Each structure stands twice: as C-alpha cells, then as structure tokens.
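Input for the complex:
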Amino acid sequence: MSFDVDVRARRGDVGVGGRFVAGDGLTVLVGPSGVGKTSLLDMIAGLLRPAGGHVRVGGRTLFDGATNLPPEQRRAGYVFQDARLFPHRRVQANLLYGAPDASRLAEVAETLDIVHLLRRWPRTLSGGEARRVAIGRALLSDPAFLLLDEPLSSLDPARREEAMRAIERVRDTRAVPILMVTHDLREAERLGDRVIAVG
Ligand SMILES: Nc1ncnc2c1ncn2[C@@H]1O[C@H](COP(=O)(O)OP(=O)(O)OP(=O)(O)O)[C@@H](O)[C@H]1O
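Predicted:
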C-alpha cells in the first residue's frame, strides 16, 4: 500500500483529519475549501503533528504512537499551494537545491518542459511555470513520495493544460506515489488513478 493514513488534529476551533488507504500511482484528495486537505498533507509531511493515528507510506511508518519522524527523514517532495521558490536563486539553482544527484536535472527539466527557463529568475515566471519548477525541485530531491497541494489552482486554461500534461508525464514515468489535493472534480478524474473524498 502506498499510503495508509489515519490522522486527526485540531486547528484553532476545528477538528481536521482523514483516514484512507491508497495504492500506487496518483491519488487525488478532493473536498471543499477549509475542510482540512492542506492540514492532512502537512501531517503526512511531518509539518503538523497529529493528535493521534498513523501515517505509513510505502510500508514505512512515518508517524504512530511510537514514531514521529522529522520532515527531512520522511522524504516527501512537497509542492505547496504557492510555489515558494527561492527568489534570490535562478530556476536552475532552485531545481538543484537539496538535489543529491544533479545529473538528473536535464531529464527532469525535459519532462516538465522548463529547459528554456533554467537561467530565469523566479519573479519573471508565470504562475504555471513556477508550479512546474516547484514540481521539478520536489522530484530532484529524490523523494519517497510527492505531495501536490492544488498544483493547478489559479492558472488560466492554457497554463492549466500544460501543468496537467506535466503531472501526467510525472505520473506515468516515475515510480513515486503521488498524493494530490484539488477541489476540481474534472481535474481529479483526469489525473487520478483513484479519487478520495475528504471531509
Ligand atoms: N494555523 C491555523 N490556526 C487555526 N486554524 C487553522 C490554521 N490553519 C488552518 N486552520 C483552519 O483549519 C481548517 C482546515 O484548513 P486547511 O488549510 O487544512 O483546509 P483546506 O481543505 O486545505 O482548505 P483550502 O482548500 O481552502 O486550501 C480551516 O478551517 C482553517 O481555517
């Protein structure tokens, strides 16, 4: 099983959490705004501590009553809702940040169609380009799994299509399990090997 998750936590006055198991490939979590999808990803990545439950990915326990691995040991490739690129590094340096093997740069840049952007500064990128660079950076960090938080939101239709194709290529060419959050059902059905409702 790629993901075996059962977690809960409090955020302010609301309880958040979720319980699901999912196999290989791309799993989509759908649910309305504010239901706790980002919080769920944060608990899987180790950024938010659950009050209880467990997180197992690829058979490895990341969190349970006895274990609470720090984020760097979980090896999540987390692409946040905003791309969060380093503004003072060019695209290539962003991609190689935390990459153990720089020789994969060309291949990953090709997959995501960002070869022509390598010398650019993040502030000159469109929203869709920045998302693709953020996905590339996550892939190059040699992740055990990918977490994509609404990677297509606020993109215009053309950029959205480019980003969807890039995600499809990653899904179809990499062995890493992917967990992606969206609230767009059409997107979910096109990209997901399975769709799980949260909340
Ligand atoms: N730091 C925080 N302190 C208090 N409440 C928070 C905090 N972060 C999130 N929340 C609340 O927790 C709930 C879940 O937030 P979360 O961002 O996980 O939802 P979401 O499903 O990802 O939403 P969206 O689709 O709008 O991004 C919301 O009600 C939110 O207001």
